[in-house]
Design goal:
Distance between the termini: 94 Å
Helix content: 40-55%
CATH architecture of the largest domain: 3-Layer(aba) Sandwich
Shape: globular
CATH class of the largest domain: Alpha Beta
Number of helices: 29
CATH topology of the largest domain: UDP-N-acetylmuramoyl-L-alanine:D-glutamate ligase
Radius of gyration: 45 Å
Strand order of the largest sheet: 4-3-2-5-1-6-7-8
Strand content: 5-15%
Length: 668
């Protein structure tokens, strides 16, 4: 019994060494003493206090270092350690985690800890250390630890090789040879600790357990290599100032400096160079003084709701040129627009070279040709085209339109279109072909009489507002539209302004004429509330209420004031206004001075804008009791207006669509 007691002491030393890396010697040291007597187990407990604490380290690794010193307090737990060898799997796992006796040992133990699933390495090292004296026991005990450490990673590699076939036979044999040498030589523990870190790269693939991540890791550095070659790209063009977007913007801006030029010769040559896309389109032409854009957008929405792929061309834009070209209510994308303009530009340059006598193509002509080409490319079912200025010599008057719409006629561009309403109407009605299909909006008596005479002469089919169709007031904010075919009841819009209901009635009648039938009332009800029109009684803030409206003539200002009355009753109104030289600016200023409590006179970016100083010296301004401020910069004018307002006041920005465009660009 005494001898038996001594043997476990030797085994205890081996256990200490095995705690650092392999747990295999602990199995035999516990297995044989357990068979002889309980005393041997106690003796085993006396020294292998570290394995006992290692068992605790599983649950509480932070206390493992503290428990390493008291070797006499663990005998009660060694019974479990003694019984553990019976369950070889449990004992094999326990010693693996008992290793963290030192920082280096922890690193060495954690890596091979996952591999020790086999039982053979546990028995082999136990036999040799049992026979040798204490001096040799330390070495032999440590040697089996090496065997365990070396064998475990080798077996993990073998397992990986079987599953993934990644490691070659040469690598296996080399590692097995190292393991054999370690067994025979029995290296010192210090050497073993140094070798343990070498097991780290071996353990890495074991954790990955799959080839794909390993391959991905191998590929990444390969990609990094060529990415360092930054000297090659100089041959590629840099998107600094020569990108298509910048080039297109520069091109269109340069064209804007040319201004407007009446005549159809230039655009007809350009369209011919593009293959005459306008001849393959069914179009509806919308002309007039006010309400053109609103009517065109409403008409497009109604036709889209009835299953037609609908193109829409409107002008001007507020922020981006892409706002002018739409399909089914959606703007053309920037990349498509840039490609389209570059295609038209190439043809336009050739046309300009061949026909210098007519002068270069203008911005509006380029954009109109681009819109017609795009609609042809997209194979739209119908294209709704808004005229730019006038009608007879406007660039849009190159299509064989199926329906012609005249919204209303007022004095505008008198230096170009004529000094009277009748003269302006004749210019706009020039878009009507013989035997055309005409829809006349809410025209003044003078304009309506002239329009009917023109239509009778051209033998057109004409729908007159108030006769062939009309607008009826409904319940609350609802309205009814009556046509020769049917009646549409309880229609509604999200747009503010009574004049928008009139525009809606015109659009409904035009859609009926184009489709040659009554509209589907359900589809119509779904389409109307979805319509949104920028810069038409557009509210951009509520406290204070800020309203943007593009009214640019006396009739537009009158409709604007009438629409705002319900929203502004009892509130102070601060106006910000800018007007073009070719408008009836004196009458417009008089209307605004009667409606506003404070008025800021400013300017916009258009070259035709009237100077703020000049407007401020007009008699209508000087004689008014309304407080007036002059602020040439529109941004400073708006900021000053905000400083004077409270949350209950109203700020109204109007007079020109170009003023609203300047403000919206700064907002974005």
């Amino acid at each position: 019994m005494a001898k038996a007691a001594k043997k476990p002491k030797k085994q205890v030393k081996s256990a200490k060494t095995t705690v650092k890396k392999p747990a295999k010697p602990a199995k035999k040291s516990t297995a044989k003493p357990a068979v002889k007597s309980v005393k041997t187990a106690k003796k085993l407990v006396a020294k292998p206090s570290k394995p006992a604490t290692a068992a605790k380290a599983r649950k509480k690794p932070a206390k493992a270092a503290r428990a390493a010193k008291p070797a006499l307090k663990a005998p009660a737990k060694k019974k479990t350690a003694v019984k553990a060898p019976a369950k070889k799997k449990a004992t094999a796992k326990a010693p693996v985690k008992k290793k963290p006796a030192s920082a280096a040992a922890k690193a060495a133990v954690k890596k091979p800890a996952k591999a020790p699933k086999t039982k053979k390495p546990v028995k082999a090292p136990a036999k040799a250390p049992a026979k040798k004296p204490r001096a040799t026991v330390a070495k032999t005990a440590k040697a089996p630890a090496k065997k365990a450490v070396e064998k475990k990673p080798s077996r993990t590699l073998k397992a990986l090789e079987k599953k993934h076939a990644r490691v070659g036979k040469a690598a296996k044999e080399a590692k097995e040879a190292k393991a054999v040498k370690d067994k025979a030589s029995g290296k010192a523990p210090s050497k073993k600790v140094k070798k343990a870190p070498a097991a780290e790269p071996v353990k890495a693939p074991a954790k990955v357990s799959a080839k794909k991540p390993a391959k991905a890791a191998a590929k990444k550095p390969a990609k990094k290599g060529p990415s360092k070659n930054f000297e090659a790209p100089p041959s590629r063009p840099r998107p600094a100032s020569h990108t298509p977007s910048v080039e297109v913007a520069r091109y269109l801006t340069e064209l804007e400096r040319l201004g407007m030029k009446f005549g159809l010769t230039r655009i007809e040559k350009l369209l011919k160079a593009l293959g005459n896309p306008e001849k393959r389109l069914k179009t509806i032409h919308v002309v007039g003084t006010n309400g053109k854009s609103s009517t065109a957008r409403m008409l497009s929405s109604i036709l889209t709701a009835h299953g037609l792929k609908t193109g829409t061309y409107v002008s001007p834009h507020l922020v981006s040129f892409t706002e002018r070209i739409l399909i089914n209510g959606k703007e053309i994308s920037e990349p498509k627009f840039e490609k389209l303009i570059m295609e038209v530009k190439a043809k336009a340059e050739d046309v300009n070279k061949r026909s210098r006598s007519s002068g270069p193509l203008t911005q509006f002509e380029i954009l109109t040709a681009a819109a017609l080409l795009y609609f042809k490319q997209q194979k739209v079912g119908v294209a709704v085209i808004e005229a730019g200025l006038g009608g007879r010599y406007d660039a849009t008057n190159v299509t064989d339109s199926k329906v012609q719409v005249i919204t209303n006629i007022e004095l505008e561009h008198t230096d170009l279109l004529g000094k009277t309403v009748s003269a302006i109407l004749k210019e706009k009605a020039a878009v009507i072909p013989e035997k055309g299909n005409v829809v006349l909006g809410a025209l003044s008596d003078e304009a309506m009489g002239e329009a009917i005479r023109i239509c009778e002469r051209l033998k057109t089919k004409t729908a007159v507002f108030g006769e062939e169709y009309s607008l009826l007031k409904g319940r609350g904010d609802k309205f009814d539209v009556w046509t020769a075919r049917t009646q549409y009841s309880d229609m509604s819009l999200t747009l503010l302004g009574q004049y928008q209901r009139t525009n809606c009635a015109v659009a409904i009648q035009a859609a009926e004429v184009f489709l040659h039938k009554a509209l589907d009332e359900k589809k119509l009800r779904r389409a109307l509330p979805r319509i949104s029109i920028p810069a038409r009684l557009e509210i951009i803030a509520e406290k204070p209420l800020v309203v943007l409206d593009g009214a640019h003539n006396p009739s537009g200002i009158e409709e604007l004031i009438h629409s705002l009355d319900p929203l502004t009753s009892g509130k102070r109104i601060i106006g910000v206004v800018s007007i073009l030289k070719d408008k009836n600016y004196e009458k417009m200023l008089g209307q605004l001075l009667e409606f506003c409590d404070i008025l800021f006179i400013t300017e916009n970016s258009n070259e035709r804008c009237m100077s703020a100083q000049e407007m401020s010296r007009l008699p209508v301004v000087l004689e008014s009791h309304v407080q007036t401020f002059v602020a040439p910069d529109s941004q400073s004018a708006l900021e000053s207006a905000f400083k004077l307002t409270s949350t209950r006041d109203v700020i109204l920005v109007t007079g020109s669509i170009y003023l609203l465009a300047d403000i919206k660009r700064r907002m974005t």
